[in-house]
Design brief:
8 helices; single chain; 8-stranded antiparallel β-sheet; 28% strand; alpha+beta
């Protein structure tokens, strides 16, 4: 049973993002078969090791299993059960080889959900904005190419959505990207299609989406250096035509 520390309650923070599978070792290990989709059941600490339980969904698993066993990061793999077109695996990896997932744990993050094939979508829970800031600093320092989809408060706090200041151009680009399924898995549209609908260049759309994402992070992470005092509209205007 949880015990109270006597201090004020801290609202946990949820962050949702995508990351290319080839940019982290565990993603590379699990992407050996493009026809197999993988989902993390949970990450369980066992001493100094973390064992992910994976659900793999597809028609066959031979290629997937072979690639997983041959990965430089995987120490052991065991198929636990097979239900319909899905199989549950227990996979142990060499701790020092999986820097990204270790970084999530080391910065106080808990994996709520993770699914992937060519790219991975993660939902992480952090105890507070301080831990989220540590995770932000971690992945920026190691150049992990995350695309932040959403940052919000605890699932138990419906009013906990993080307020974000966006320019009208960023708001329009992000709204259209969401409505057209750009952040869905698989993607429902491309930056080129969004750019055509808005009547601007692909580069302009890309900048608006990235700057909007940056605004989400900066507005939700206390203590982050706000960076140069740049006019948000003016910084993007040169590529809009």
């Amino acid at each position: 049973m949880p015990t109270s520390t006597g201090g004020p309650d801290r609202m946990t923070v949820i962050v949702e993002f995508t990351i290319p599978a080839e940019s982290f070792a565990f993603g590379r290990a699990t992407s050996g078969d493009p026809d197999v989709r993988v989902a993390i059941e949970r990450l369980v600490p066992v001493g100094d090791e973390r064992i992910p339980f994976l659900w793999a969904t597809g028609e066959t698993f031979e290629r997937f299993e072979r690639h997983l066993r041959e990965s430089e990061v995987v120490e052991r793999i065991e198929r636990l059960t097979h239900i319909g077109d899905s199989a549950l695996y227990s996979v142990e990896w060499f701790e020092e080889g999986e820097a990204f997932l270790n970084g999530i744990s080391d910065t106080g993050g808990t994996v709520v959900e993770g699914t992937g094939d060519g790219s991975w979508s993660f939902t992480l829970r952090f105890r507070d904005h301080t831990d989220l800031k540590r995770f932000h600093q971690f992945y920026r320092a190691h150049d992990y190419p995350l695309e932040i989809d959403r940052i919000h408060g605890s699932d138990d706090d419906p009013g906990g959505e993080v307020g974000v200041e966006l320019s009208s151009a960023q708001h329009d680009a992000l709204r259209l990207a969401i409505e057209r399924g750009y952040f869905s898995v698989p993607r429902g549209t491309t930056l080129e299609e969004i750019a055509e609908e808005l009547g601007i260049s692909r580069q302009a759309v890309s900048e608006r989406v990235r700057r909007g994402t940056e605004s989400v992070l900066r507005d939700s992470l206390p203590g982050v250096d706000p960076g140069p005092d740049t006019d948000r509209e003016g910084a993007e205007g040169t590529t809009d035509e």
